[in-house]
Amino acid sequence: MFKFEIRQKCEKSAARLGTVYTDHGKIETPGFIFCATKANIKGLTIDKVKEAGTQIILSNTYHLMLQPGSEIIKEAGGLHQFMGWDGPMFTDSGGFQIFSLGYGSIDAEIKGAQLLKGKKTMLALSEAGAKFRSYIDGKIVMLTPELSMRIQHDLGADIVVSFDECTPYHVNKLYTANSMEKSKRWALRSLNELKRIGDGSQALLVVIQGGIYPDLRMESARFANEGDFQGFAIGGCLGKTKSEMYDIVNLTSEMLDKTKYVHLLGIGGIEDIFNGVKCGIDTFDCVTPTRIARHGAAIVKKRELRDNTMKNYMNLNNALFKNDFKPISSSCQCYTCLNFSRAYIHHLLKAKEILSGSLISIHNIYTLNKLMSEIRNSLKTDSLATVYKEWCER
Amino acid sequence: MFKFEIRQKCEKSAARLGTVYTDHGKIETPGFIFCATKANIKGLTIDKVKEAGTQIILSNTYHLMLQPGSEIIKEAGGLHQFMGWDGPMFTDSGGFQIFSLGYGSIDAEIKGAQLLKGKKTMLALSEAGAKFRSYIDGKIVMLTPELSMRIQHDLGADIVVSFDECTPYHVNKLYTANSMEKSKRWALRSLNELKRIGDGSQALLVVIQGGIYPDLRMESARFANEGDFQGFAIGGCLGKTKSEMYDIVNLTSEMLDKTKYVHLLGIGGIEDIFNGVKCGIDTFDCVTPTRIARHGAAIVKKRELRDNTMKNYMNLNNALFKNDFKPISSSCQCYTCLNFSRAYIHHLLKAKEILSGSLISIHNIYTLNKLMSEIRNSLKTDSLATVYKEWCER
Fold first, then answer.
1. A84 vs B38: CB contact, 8 Å cut-off?
2. Which neighbouring-strand residues pair with B284?
3. Segment A128-182, tens digit of pLDDT
4. Which residues of A are catalytic?
5. Residue B355 belongs to what domain range?
6. Distance between CA B314 and CA B328 in Å, rounded?
């Protein structure tokens, strides 16, 4: 059964140390949730994901409902059994992908980038739900709050999310307000359906919408605080710039009933994590650690970089690493750093060997988990700033 | 230091049980050598290769001399250190790839298929060596017996191979004879160079050429038997059909000094292995187990198949497996079979997730190692036929 316990609150900020209990084990918070989009973390056997210190993973309802279909996963005994993961698991509602893929780009739209031209799969949006075309076989699918809950129930994750319209950036305040109101109604339908079909073992998070408008975020939060949800997931458009995003996350988080668990959807840059933790965010999820790995980028402390960029990742494609026989990070205890050099990974990247992505993914997952563990430790003595300095200053 | 010991000879055939000792451990024979072409087994962390019971791996001189270059690997402390493999290792001479890729196809040409149109990288063949164009950067490279040995010395494998011309199929007997004679001269140059630069820790195998002509194979074997080589590698064109191949392998093997170690280059189908073992072949290598894995084919006993093909592999792309929650093989103890179902792997294949190839590769490697172990056990009681029946009859 889901339970969230706050173990310690900080003095200097809204940060808190907590523990989430689920039927598949606990999650120490602040924590990071890794994306196993299509029932696997790309290129990694699941034991390596676990060995890298992973507490919880996230799979996507949208992808899994289309391939292999939730009925197959249910027949397999649920997603845990199907993919061989015995720890805590999270599924999203499918809303984000329908709307973001539907408008022709994965997440450019929600982040306010120019509307990309691409194959648009979103067909119609109504009070009932969202109609879209399957990218697998072109079949038309109608996803409703009830169906999203039934699918998430079949998948059997420990933490599930209410179905919402993921409001885009380019729309005006009126659209955002109406969309947020619809998401409220959908959240109630989600709650009712899960109560009807579930046994109470799955925790339901309600998504907070309202775009970049404080009053709309406030209304979304008010509704969420009053409902019978086990926690919150801050979603939707958070603005175009980092500073806009930090402002929205901060003010939204402040409005929430902070005795409950708070997840921030789809955000997971190193600096973003520090900001989120200070706002009282308990968990983060993001595809970045494993996606950038497949392109050759390893997450490191800025002072470990060999070039003068201000990023938190080392681009191992760089010819600098051709004969650099040190591990990615000398202090790192991950499988990759204990066994392989930058030169070896550079070679694998040049030779287009997919093992490069697997090895860097292991490092990135381990590193994110290590970062979260250092953050948790620092919160015990209210010294988050020290960890920030260690990771983000040169 | 390399040593080969025959522990038991069979009565019913030329099969024998043996042990190869190297500075990085021993290999029980008959054994299988897995292809880590570009210093990795595609999509697998090296610990998974080891866990699957692998005794020895093979890397390719041709690929590694072009990327990353043998000097980088030497600087890393050798290939063992570079790629994190601490067991026995084999490298080929580069000859096979120069000639097979050079004539416009990977191995179609050597197997007698029609000459494929493609980018031909082979530029000139002379007594000195072979000149070809790098597929990486277009640079012209001249590979000689001496250079091949220097590269293989830098790589530092336990077993290395003399540089030879891998005679194609479409040529006539005169060409094959001249080519075989040239390979003899190149073998002597290889031997001399390795003696000059080496410390005797690397075993040199001489390649037996002569195509499909018994008298030429005889001459190649006579030369090889008289030389100061630690063993033999049967190479070149073995004919167009399975039965032609078995004949050539059989007669070539018979001609060799069978107190020494015999490797069969590039052959590794299940039936081929049984045939080879009966001819006294000690080790096999082939890309098949991992290559077919990436296309969804899992090696199984024929009686485990769900369709009525006569092959030794299960095509997990087949819709049959959509909701088949059994492991690939119920009796298999590999990581994949202990943790995942056919349905899960089928899903990964449909979702184009590269983890499918990794999971099937683990199974295929484990299965080949298991087969070799069963073959070795059967040789103790001269009951190879029983194992053959178990694997190849329905």
1. no
2. B32, B264
3. 999 998 888 889 999 999 999 999 999 999 999 999 998 877 889 999 999 999 9
4. 92, 285
5. 294-384
6. 8
Whether residue B276 is found in the same domain as residue B310: no
Asked if the C-beta of A351 comes within 8 angstroms of chain B's C-beta atoms, the answer is yes
* pTM for the structure as a whole: 0.95
Residues B128, B131: Cα–Cα separation, whole Å: 9
Q: How many CA atoms lie within 13 A of A248 on its CB side?
A: 25
Catalytic-labelled residue, pool B154, B158, B164, B285 = B285
The number of distinct structural domains making up chain A is: 2
CB contact under 8 A, A347 and B46: no
Smallest CA–CA distance from B346 into chain A, residue: A68
Cβ(A285)–Cβ(A58) under 8 Å? yes
Least confident of A26-35, A301-310, B257-266, B366-375: A301-310
Identify the domain boundary among B260, B286, B312. B286
- Whether the Cβ atoms of residue A330 and residue A79 lie closer than 8 Å to each other: no
**Does the CB of A95 have a partner CB in chain B at under 8 Å?**
no
Cα–Cα distance for residue pair A126/A32, rounded to 1 Å = 34
User: Chain B: nearest CA to A82, how far in angstroms?
Assistant: 6
**Cα A241 to Cα B214: distance, rounded to the nearest angstrom:** 76
Q: Do B353 and A46 touch (CB under 8 A)?
A: no
Is B9 part of any domain?
yes
Distance from CA of B63 to the nearest CA of A (A): 9
In a domain, B391, yes or no: no
ipTM of this complex prediction, to 2 decimal places: 0.95
Whether residues A258 and A368 share a domain: the answer is: no
**Residue A202, domain member (yes or no):** yes
